[in-house]
Amino acid sequence: MEVKVTVPHDLSVEEAKEKAKPTLIQCLEAFNGENIKAEWRGPNCQFSCTSMGFKVDGHAELRENEADVTVNLPLAASMFKGRVQETVLKRLTGAFKKE
């Protein structure tokens, strides 16, 4: 099951990447993620982990003015869809605020 989240921002792609890098890891850790892997290529990230016995993966694409994050949950974990959306949206929105 795909969980898609789009988060607007007012940063350059590089600034957004610097803020998103630790925040995406924190999102995975918030769901007890283990064996977390995140590989960045330019403004795109492929990530994966194991959470509560489930394999979770996805990707993030950073662009001017927005970030798109897709998390692939196994069907058995579909009950967490809303929580995943809320966590990613809240944490990235907070990270993207200008200081």
Strand order of the largest sheet: 1-5-4-3-2
CATH architecture: 2-Layer Sandwich
Helix content estimate: 25-40%
What structural class is derived from the secondary structure elements?
alpha+beta
Summarize the structure.
With 99 residues, this protein is an alpha+beta fold. It contains two helices and five strands.
Observed structural traits:
alpha+beta, five-stranded antiparallel β-sheet, 34% helix
Report what the structure shows.
Helix 1 (13-30) packs antiparallel against helix 2 (81-96). This protein starts with a strand and ends with a helix. With 99 residues, it is of the alpha+beta class. It has a five-stranded antiparallel β-sheet, covered by helices on one side. The chain has two helices and five strands; from the N terminus they run E-H-E-E-E-E-H. A hairpin with a 2-residue loop joins strand 4 (54-63) and strand 5 (66-72). The model has no long low-confidence stretch (mean pLDDT 96). The protein has one domain: START domain (Alpha-D-Glucose-1,6-Bisphosphate, Chain A, domain 4, 2-Layer Sandwich), CATH 3.30.530. It is 34% helix and 41% strand. The radius of gyration is 13 Å and the shape is globular. The protein has helices at 13-30, 81-96, and strands at 2-8, 33-41, 44-51, 54-63, 66-72.
